[in-house]
Amino acid sequence: MTSRIEPIEPGDASDEAINELLKQTEQWYDDSAFVGAMAHQPDLFKGLVSVFESFGKTENIDSELLELMRLKVADCHQCAYCGTVRTQDVLDEVAPKEEAVFEDINADVLSDREVLAVQLAEYMSEDPHRITDEFMNEIRDEFGEQGAIELLLFLSIEVGLDRFCIALTLDTSEQSPYPSGLEYPLENPSNNQ
Fold first, then answer.
1. How far is residue 158's CA from residue 64's CA, in Å, rounded to a whole number?
2. pTM of structure
């Protein structure tokens, strides 16, 4: 399946600043399709890059945790693109744990804080009404109020952008190391990497 709107490749934008931003952000996933799709709206693309770069920098939330959550969102929505690409900065740290987030969460592989965060990703993806006061208290106890807000904001953006990729039936770029011709819905994200 091909993308419903062809992403802009790095170097193909009419604005050199966008080309530079595409080259920079292509490194996030070792693929340019996601950022290339956003680049059709240059001002929004610039703003979203700034927002993404703000996450995972606090002492209580790290990029590895955010990647586990991102993968759970992809699993819940069966997003072929998001279930295929991996965040390159944390690839080695997350790889041994990623199977634990697909389908049923495997608490034997994940730390308690990772289980909480991945469960939050599942709730936000499937039905945020399932988040109880008790569960939110556990999140706050583990991550603090600022951390809880960061997790919720990250997941809100991820859930929306996951659906953005699905609506576009986004496929990987030809230059990336990932398989192309992605099929939606992705039945098992762990088989598509």
1. 15
2. 0.94
**Would you state the structure tokens that stand for residue 143, as one six-digit string?**
């991550």
* Distance of alpha carbon 181 from alpha carbon 174, whole angstroms: 10
Q: Quote the CA–CA distance of 169 and 81 in Å, as a whole number.
A: 8
CB 31 within 8 A of CB 178: yes
Measured CA to CA, the distance from residue 180 to residue 80 in angstroms comes to 10
**Cα–Cα dist 138/154, whole Å:** 18
pLDDT tens-place values along the chain, 193 residues long: 689 999 999 999 999 999 999 999 999 999 999 999 999 999 999 999 999 999 988 888 999 999 999 999 999 999 999 999 999 999 999 999 999 999 999 999 999 999 999 999 999 999 999 999 999 999 999 999 999 999 999 999 999 999 999 999 999 999 999 999 999 999 876 665 5
CA-based nearest residue to 81, from 172, 159, 157, 147: 172
